[in-house]
């Protein structure tokens, strides 16, 4: 996170009466006015959208802190507050599953967000980051270009991927959902949302999402990775349905017969499904070490599927490929 001090925000107080300018910067909105209050103004400056409710204690803590820091920014960022009790359709459409939830829009697109009542220092860092992004894209009160908008989408995708990598499934779901509201056929968002559903165990929703990818995009590496991840998740579900999903039982099979390669394969599938990629790779490497030709080179083939699902540039894939090379050529 970037420090807000670099954005030169002047001091202010949260309980000071709003000037007319301050009132313009902080407003309530609704489903009907979202386009005018959020999307259109975000063409020039970042607009923060705070989803809240009167009964939400953390919302009452976050709201004044947000207002204070937005006021300090002196017009370089706006705050729009959405009462989810009065606008449930909008909250649902935006994928809001818990409150408070704050999203940053710039160039008509969602670019970042957070959930929960953050301390004031972290709010300053968050808003400072939005101001720096806007400055980098020429967001100085002038309409931004299509290239700037594309850059903001790229940033939102990076934020969603970072949330997914950190197992913040709710944050990833919300950001991918917001991107798809603007770009419903974006293969990066569709595949990212698919991977998020896979990680959360929502296999049916993952399949429905991946089915939305257009045929022309199915040679995209992101689609290939998401499709492989979905297939592996479905395989893990089938193992569980056949009673093969208990790692303790599988481990007992391996201990009884260290050359039970099918047991190690089952263990690798379950480790991968639970997100333990390192152990999943190690289980398959052990099969290869003991009997590379088992099941028509099945362990190596499965390991390559794992690498494809994890992404060729992921740390786990790189480490796994090094281990595979050492095993094959030692």
TrEMBL record:
GO terms for biological process: cell redox homeostasis; response to stress. Residues 1-18 have a biased composition (Polar residues). GO terms for cellular component: cytosol. Residues 1-21 are annotated as: Disordered. InterPro entries: Thioredoxin-like_sf, Thioredoxin_CS, Thioredoxin_domain, TPR-like_helical_dom_sf. The keyword Transport applies. Residues 10-132 form the Thioredoxin domain. PROSITE patterns: THIOREDOXIN_1, THIOREDOXIN_2. Keywords: Disulfide bond, Electron transport, Redox-active center, Transport. Pfam families: Thioredoxin, TPR_19, TPR_20. GO terms for molecular function: protein-disulfide reductase activity. This is FIG000875: Thioredoxin domain-containing protein EC-YbbN.
């Amino acid at each position: 996170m970037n420090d807000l001090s670099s954005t030169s925000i002047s001091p202010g107080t949260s309980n000071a009466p709003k000037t007319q300018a301050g009132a313009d910067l902080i407003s309530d909105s609704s489903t009907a006015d979202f386009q005018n209050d959020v999307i259109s103004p975000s063409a020039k400056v970042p607009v923060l959208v705070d989803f809240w409710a009167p009964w939400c204690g953390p919302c009452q803590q976050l709201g004044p802190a947000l207002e204070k820091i937005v006021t300090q920014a002196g017009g370089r960022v706006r705050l729009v507050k959405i009462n989810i009790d009065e606008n449930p359709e909008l909250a649902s459409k935006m994928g809001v599953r818990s409150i408070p939830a704050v999203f940053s829009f710039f160039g008509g697109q969602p670019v970042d967000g957070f959930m929960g009542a953050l301390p004031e220092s972290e709010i300053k860092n968050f808003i400072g980051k939005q101001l720096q992004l806007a400055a980098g894209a020429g967001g100085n009160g002038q309409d931004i270009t299509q290239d700037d908008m594309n850059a903001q989408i790229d940033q939102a995708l990076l934020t969603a991927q970072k949330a997914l990598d950190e197992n913040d499934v709710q944050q990833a779901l919300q950001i991918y959902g917001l991107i798809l509201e603007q770009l419903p056929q974006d293969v990066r968002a569709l595949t990212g949302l698919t991977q998020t559903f896979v990680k959360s165990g929502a296999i049916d929703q993952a399949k429905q999402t991946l089915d939305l990818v257009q045929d022309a995009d199915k040679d995209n590496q992101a689609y290939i990775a998401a499709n492989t991840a979905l297939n592996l998740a479905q395989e893990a579900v089938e193992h569980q349905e056949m009673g093969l999903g208990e790692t303790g039982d599988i481990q007992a099979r391996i201990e009884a017969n260290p050359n039970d390669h099918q047991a190690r394969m089952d263990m690798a599938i379950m480790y991968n499904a639970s997100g333990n990629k390192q152990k999943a790779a190690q289980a398959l490497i052990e099969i290869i070490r003991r009997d590379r030709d088992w099941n028509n080179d099945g362990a190596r083939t499965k390991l390559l599927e794992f690498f494809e699902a994890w992404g060729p540039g992921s740390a786990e894939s790189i480490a796994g490929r090094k281990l595979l090379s050492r095993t094959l050529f030692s």
